[in-house]
Amino acid sequence: RPCSTRATLEGINKPVIDRIIRVDHAGEYGANRIYAGQMAVLGRSSAGPIIQQMWNQEKDHLKKFNELMVAYRVRPTVLLPFWNVAGFVLGAGSALLGKKGAMACTVAVEESISDHYNSQIRTLMEEDPEKYKELLQIIKQFRDDEREHHDIGLEHDAEAAPAYSVLKTAIQLGCKAAIFLSERI
Ligand SMILES: [Fe+2]
Ligand SMILES: [Fe+2]
């Protein structure tokens, strides 16, 4: 379809869509780096396979947002090099607390991301559910995947991690800041 890009961009609220795709791409990029950091520490432990399974889904999420950036002509956030390092450090750091620490990190991050996706779904529904059908479908699917990662974390004793609630609050503050910044720059 030679005109697919033009058709995609036709009549969309470009600033809104730019912001959504840029921040989601940043988030999925960061998620990949978090799981990479966790695997570097816990890859050979009993938690390895379950972390790898979640990471594989994040790879699909990131691939999809890479495609969407091209289709909607959105540039990535300038903060990617920072999320590259920060994501890995968060993943590896939480994993150094042990399997439960890694799972606590997963619960905190995935809860933030699924809330964030829910708020985007509301925004797009208010904008035009028909026009943004494809995007809505993708975000709903990913929201469900992130919810599942969150539940996997809880099933694997996230709440038994050292200083669980402090850790969760701190990580979620970081997520909020990352979302705020990645939407804007
Ligand atoms: Fe994801
Ligand atoms: Fe996830």
From TrEMBL:
One of its GO terms (molecular function) is metal ion binding. GO terms for cellular component: extrinsic component of mitochondrial inner membrane; nucleus. Keywords: Iron, Membrane, Metal-binding, Mitochondrion, Mitochondrion inner membrane, Monooxygenase, Oxidoreductase, Ubiquinone biosynthesis. InterPro entries: Ferritin-like_SF, Ubq_synth_Coq7. It is an enzyme of class 1 (oxidoreductase). GO terms for biological process: determination of adult lifespan; regulation of gene expression; regulation of reactive oxygen species metabolic process; ubiquinone biosynthetic process. The keyword Repressor does not apply. Fe cation 2 binds at E58, E110, E146, H149. It holds the Pfam family COQ7. SUPFAM superfamilies: Ferritin-like. It is a peripheral membrane protein. Fe cation 1 binds at E28, E58, H61, E146. Belongs to the COQ7 family. Component of a multi-subunit COQ enzyme complex, composed of at least COQ3, COQ4, COQ5, COQ6, COQ7 and COQ9. Interacts with ADCK4 and COQ6. Interacts with COQ9. Catalyzes the hydroxylation of 2-polyprenyl-3-methyl-6-methoxy-1,4-benzoquinol (DMQH2) during ubiquinone biosynthesis. Has also a structural role in the COQ enzyme complex, stabilizing other COQ polypeptides. Involved in lifespan determination in a ubiquinone-independent manner. This is 5-demethoxyubiquinone hydroxylase, mitochondrial. It comes from Strix occidentalis caurina (northern spotted owl). The gene is COQ7.
